[in-house]
Design a protein that fits this description.
35% of the residues lie in helices and 16% in strands. By secondary structure, the protein is α/β, with parallel strands linked by helices.
Length: 159
């Protein structure tokens, strides 16, 4: 996949990814997408396109365990998040949502807003402007979740 890049810094928390005021009032995927990152980057939800990539610093998704944060990004069209590190619960919520979350500090440092970035999950590689960065491959079960779309669909298919 090759896509537009959205770059954010360290400690992007779940409250700015999906504001808490919507937690119990918004469940429609399209509506969730409209509020993705609205408190951090008001242009994001209006301009994000399917297949875009978020690149971030350390501790992406810190804060509450709000699973809507990962789903809002997926529903907005984000194809993958590459960060220096992820908050533990957000990382698992992203996988459950079928949103690949890749930790790679060196790769993050190499990316700028004009970079050409291609991610190959099967080969566990990220190509940034012609430079290849490898990451530990996802376990088979995680790849299966990502390939079918999310954890719920994975469970449906395996029952």
């Amino acid at each position: 996949m090759s896509a537009r890049i959205w770059i954010y810094g360290d400690d992007v928390n779940t409250d700015v990814i999906f504001p808490g005021k919507y937690t119990y009032t918004v469940s429609d995927p399209a509506e969730m997408a409209r509020h993705a990152l609205e408190d951090l980057d008001p242009s994001f939800a209006k301009e994000v396109r399917s297949g875009d990539i978020i690149v971030a610093g350390k501790n992406f998704g810190c804060g509450s365990s709000r699973e809507q944060a990962a789903f809002a990004l997926k529903y907005a069209g984000v194809a993958v998040i590459i960060a220096k590190s992820f908050a533990r619960i957000f990382y698992r919520n992203a996988i459950n949502a079928g949103l690949p979350a890749i930790e790679h500090a060196g790769c993050v440092d190499a990316i700028n807003p004009e970079s050409e970035v291609e991610v190959d999950l099967r080969k566990a590689a990220i190509n940034v402007d012609g430079t290849k960065f490898e990451f530990p491959p996802f376990p088979d079960q995680v790849m299966a979740i990502l390939e079918v779309g999310d954890l719920v669909e994975y469970v449906r298919k395996t029952l």
